[in-house]
Every structure is written in structure tokens, then in C-alpha cells.
Design brief:
Elements (H helix, E strand, L loop, with lengths): L23 E2 L6 E2 L11 H26 L1
Antiparallel strand pairs: 1-2
Length: about 70
């Protein structure tokens, strides 16, 4: 059985990913954070990376499954 590993590393060095004035619950894990995603929603960088990796892995597995059906 083959296995897939997806790692995502986002560059959040831009100041728009940090709100020094306001801590809000992370949209993924609900722990408070001053970090913000690309839409401005409260989100830890690691939570966003994990979320994106899961989405990419799901899309990859779906494509592998589809290729098996086509054979």
C-alpha cells in the first residue's frame, strides 16, 4: 500500500498576519491568537498549514481513487 505525505509551510512573515491589539479564537482550534489568515480571520499558522495539508491530501487521494476506476 502506498502512502502519501503532505507538508505545507506558509510564509506569514508579512505584518498583515498579526494583530497586536486583538486576540480572538482561532477558527480551527478555538484557542486565542493574534495571528490572522489571508482573509483576516483569527487562525494559527500551524492550524492553517494543517488544514491546507489535509485538503491537499484529500484531493490527492481522490485523484488516485479516480485513476483506479478508469483502468
Amino acid at each position: 500500500m502506498a502512502s502519501l505525505l503532505v507538508r505545507v509551510r506558509l510564509d506569514w512573515s508579512d505584518s498583515t498576519h498579526y494583530d497586536p491589539d486583538r486576540s480572538l479564537p482561532c477558527r480551527v482550534c478555538a484557542t486565542v491568537t493574534k495571528m490572522r489568515d489571508g482573509r483576516g480571520d483569527a487562525c494559527h499558522q500551524s492550524c492553517a498549514e494543517d488544514e491546507l495539508a489535509r485538503e491537499l491530501l484529500g484531493a490527492s487521494l481522490a485523484r488516485v481513487a479516480d485513476e483506479r476506476v478508469l483502468r
